[in-house]
Fold this sequence. Notes:
With 236 residues, the protein is of the alpha+beta class.
Amino acid sequence: MARLEQVLVLEPQNELRFRGPFTDVVTSTLKLTNPSDKNVCFKVKTTAPRRYCVRPNSGVISTGSSVNVSVMLQPFEYDPNDKSRHKFMVQSILAPDNMEDIEAVWREARPEELMDSKLRCAFEVPLENDPAPEADSTQTLSSSASPSKSEQRWVFSSSMDDEEKKKILEECKRLQSEVQRLEEDNRQIRENNGLRRRQLGSSSPAVASLQGDSMTGRILCIVFFIIGVFVGKMVL
């Protein structure tokens, strides 16, 4: 059975362009417009999920409304010899009346109900000392030699607003609890050492100091680990 024609209007229609340098995040905007008389659910997928962050990466577009989707290319070292071909796919489905759960709509959707549009990615590399290059003064990496359908793997685009952010927060809470536990252990050790010092005399202060320093070092290690987790997650 033939696929339904895409009901959404995409701007741009065929290609997302990213203009370098690529040492920082580069954003390209994709505008989705719903000209129909029904609400439309949409998803954005890509063949390179680790290279892009998309916001929003899914949602519902009311009849006659538009949504601007920010496609953020993450920093990378540009290689003109890289033959990778990145693509995006906008998938959509008409929202049923009285829809309550958008995820259930996607789970229960039949293949013939889905509509999709594909866009290739192009990287523009400006020449040195040329802030506004013309078309002939840029090197464009496009997907003119795109891989076959069997080689493409479409993945739901990442968004730090969703599951990834939730996982980071849960890990942070767990590590914070561990720090609090270690601080409590450290406090208890200091109290016990203070009692021993009073009982044993002058020989115990050095022992108490060493144990306290050891516990403090453990706490610092945990704190640095928390910072490393945050930085690592944001970079990825």
